[in-house]
Structure formats: structure tokens, C-alpha cells
Write a structure and sequence with these properties.
By secondary structure, the chain is an alpha+beta fold. It has 3 helices and 3 strands; from the N terminus they run E-H-E-E-H-H. A 3-stranded antiparallel sheet has the order 1-3-2, covered by helices on one side.
Length: 117
């Protein structure tokens, strides 16, 4: 299991009910998660300038076809949620483009299969 910390910065100050805001944000993440994301669990915390998430993702085999790092998958999920949800767009600034741990934008590589004789 891989754990990824990520957050969304607010457009405005924190709402009066941070607990309900967090529930809505977590529900939006679950609604847009796909099997490829490997999301198993997510927790969060509402701060005055942002909302933080800890995403627990299944570990992928780095030699598998279509391998994407956990950081990339978490970033992609967050970006998809923001793009698809009017509520998220109103509350938060857009997240950065998905990056890998090394800071490489769009790190999602496809491994090649070795032919078996």
C-alpha cells in the first residue's frame, strides 16, 4: 500500500462548517475514483487555507504494463475531481499537473513485455 499526501488550496476563507466541507470533498474523490487509481482509503483535514488529503493506494507492480506511480495516480484523481465538480472549482484553486516524486510532469510509463520463447 502506498500513502500519498496532497492538498487543495482555497479560493476563499474556510467555511463555517469545515466538517461538512471535508465530507463533500471526500465524497467527490470517491465518486471520481476509478479502478486504475487503486484508491483503498482516503482521509482528510480542513485547514483555514487548504484541505489536506491522505490517499491510501494499492501498490502497483512497476514492471506492469501501463505502470503509473502512486503520486501520479493521486494527482490525476485530484485533478479529475476538480475538473468535474463545480463545487470543487468554486472552493479550490486547480491542482498542479500530475507529477512524480522526482518532479517529472506526467510520469506514467508503459513497460514493455519481453517475449517468451
Amino acid at each position: 500500500m502506498d500513502i500519498v499526501y496532497t492538498s487543495l488550496r482555497r479560493r476563499t476563507r474556510a467555511p463555517d462548517e469545515p466538517a461538512s466541507e471535508l465530507v463533500e470533498a471526500l465524497s467527490t474523490l470517491w465518486a471520481h475514483a476509478t479502478l486504475e487509481d487503486g484508491l483503498e482509503h482516503v482521509s482528510g483535514r480542513s485547514e483555514w487555507d487548504r484541505v489536506d488529503f491522505l490517499m491510501y493506494l494499492l501498490t502497483n507492480d512497476c514492471g506492469a504494463l501501463g505502470f503509473c506511480s502512486a503520486v501520479y495516480r493521486a494527482s490525476s484523481l485530484l485533478r479529475r475531481c476538480h475538473e468535474a465538480s463545480a463545487l470543487m472549482q468554486r472552493r479550490y484553486l486547480p491542482p498542479d499537473a500530475p507529477k512524480d516524486v522526482l518532479g517529472v510532469t506526467g510520469f506514467c510509463c508503459c513497460a514493455t513485455q519481453t517475449p517468451q520463447n
